[in-house]
Amino acid sequence: MSGFAGFYGSRAPNVPVPDAFFSVLLPQIDSLVELKVTLHLFWLLARRQGVPKAVSLDELLADQVLLKSLKPGRSPRAAEDYLSEGLELAVTRGTVLMVSLGHSETAMQRWYLINTPKSRQALERLRREDIDPSEVVGVEVGPIEVVRIYRPNIFTLYERNIGVLTPLIADTLREAELTYPVEWVPEAMRIAVELNKRSWAYVAGILKRWESEGKSSGADRRHPEASGDPEKYTGGRYGHVVKS
Question: What structural domains does the chain harbor?
Fold first, then answer.
């Protein structure tokens, strides 16, 4: 085991990590690779200017500090495989958002963002064509014709955050997806988890309240960036390419 001489003095920059990481997310993570990738993204993106903040897959593949930390000493697997695994787990969990941009289907570049209100807002604006892709990823990316926004599907979110997925619950989730705008169910789940109310009954209660009172009221007050207009989820040039 290598020794550690201790942290730097007070002048060294600190990395902000949301409280929910320790109270909600950390108890769920059972993969060391996922944990390392997630923490490295917090560290890497904290050093970026502007909001939102994104990092490309190419940059992560060239990050020797990250790759060295991911691969156990004598493992036959390549460090890049561990990186791919960690990113997939983080995106599936919903900690990290991923968007692929390119001038064609065969020339796509992946970018990763921490799942914050600002990031979600930026990706929604990108889907609606209200923002240039370069404003989301922070660098000039040239002409973009294809956008793919990846979100964890509703069944994965339920199993990760609420409980065991039964056939009855699966049917209920499908019905909810057809009834409400695409962002409502994941956001309602997120609110339920934050309040430690891990039940579909509580999630359904939030959804019904939004439907009857409008999404800007009630449980949604802590998420002012969201809009209750269902048309925002179905319009725009990239509406047909948003993936779960």
Answer: 19-150 (no CATH), 154-233 (1.10.10)
